[in-house]
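Appendix B, Record 12. Input sequence as logged:
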Amino acid sequence: MQPPRLDNNSITMEKTRVDGILPIAKQFGTGLICLTMDDSGMPEDLEGRIKITDDIVNLFKENGIPLEKAYFDHLVRPASTNPGQAKFILDAVSYTKNKYPEAT
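Logged structural output:
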């Protein structure tokens, strides 16, 4: 397994990404694009996106990183693979904005 590229400005809940990117963001106070995926890949449903969103928020809080530094990207799967994808994305964005208004 390759280490994450350190010239990247995004984080996921994939262990290698958390281990490689989070310490740098914490040290330098940088913002991060938070991609809602984990070691299992990209979720197929709203519940999976919500769980990863909450996990990322908890990771930021545990590491003293303000949520103002979090820029969420809920990742769009093609609607052709699952017609519910458009609604899942809109609902995930709405959830994030309502529950974590300080995040972007």
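Residues 10 and 33 are 4 Å apart (CA to CA).
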